[in-house]
Amino acid sequence: MNTEIATGTNHNPTGEFNPHNQHSTLPDILSQTAYLRIWQICDCRKPDVNPILPISRTSFLDGVKAGKFPKPIKIGRNSLWKVADIKKLIISLDQNA
Q: If DSSP states are collapsed to H, E and C, what string results for the chain?
């Protein structure tokens, strides 16, 4: 099964991803719309998990409440953050440092 989604008329016969080609692979599309749980973002003391931000869960949630950090979306009882929002947060924190 071909996982490429054509955005133009050119077809890549090798199946390899080429950023200059007019094709997007399925994993690239998913990485733009993926979600993270809080334990993936901040330090929630889970074994074998390296958090993205070196702050505690409480500090992160306080930042969300204060509007400094992005708000999550709710799916059922789960709070999830968009990867794109977390990437923007990291960039803004890096520029303010």
A: CCCEEECCCCCCCCCCCCCCCCEEEHHHHHHHHCEECHHHHCECCCCCCCCCCCCEHHHHHHHHHHCCCCCCEEECCEEEEEHHHHHHHHHHHHHHC
Q: Which two tokens stand for residue 19?
A: 């950023």
Q: Which helix (H) or strand (E) holds 23?
A: strand 23-25
List pLDDT tens digits, range 8-18.
444 445 544 44
> Is 0.90 surpassed by the pTM of this model?
no
Every domain of the chain and the residues it spans: 1-33, 34-96
